[in-house]
Amino acid sequence: xxxxxxxxxxxxxxxxxxxxxxxxxxxxxxxxxxxxxxxxxxxxxxxxxxxxxxxxxxxxxxxxxxxxxxxxxxxxxxxxxxxxxxxxxxxxxxxxxxxxxxxxxxxxxxxxxxxxxxxxxxxxxxxxxxxxxxxxxxxxxxxxxxxxxxxxxxxxxxxxxxxxxxxxxxxxxx
Length: 174
Description:
- The chain is mostly beta strands.
- It contains no helices and eleven strands.
- It has strands spanning about 35-40, 45-55, 60-70, 75-85, 90-100, 105-115, 120-130, 130-140, 150-160, 165-170, 170-174.
- Strands 1, 2, 3, 4, 5, 6, 7, 8, 9, 10 and 11 form an eleven-stranded antiparallel sheet that branches.
- β2 and β3 (about 60-70) form a beta hairpin.
- The protein is globular and about 50 Å long.
């Protein structure tokens, strides 16, 4: 039997036995997905295109094209991908994120921690177990956007939001 829709607890529930028509608006109870066209819906996966947005558990995922896999609870996004959660935002050409475990990755990304007034860019970002984020080949600053009066570049950086700590290697002040 297909899974029953829920009100936001647990994974998104999709019914693979219902055929979605091209251009149909997809509605999943307890979740918001807006301005989309269903591209495919097969084997507990749904693909959407055009200003797609998925919200759950305080996180927002947007991209030009999103695929959600029910069996892995994973969102993948291509084109103008963005993850927003807990006052932080990450933008890049693509993303992968497992919603329940809060693990994923984004390459060639810009990022911002608004509550700490810190922003930067990184070659690679990894989201680990929800509270930890690692950055590879990263730079960051507290300067306002379009003002890079100073910045720090590092080989790697790890931010632990639970312990409120950050550590890294290879720091150079520019």
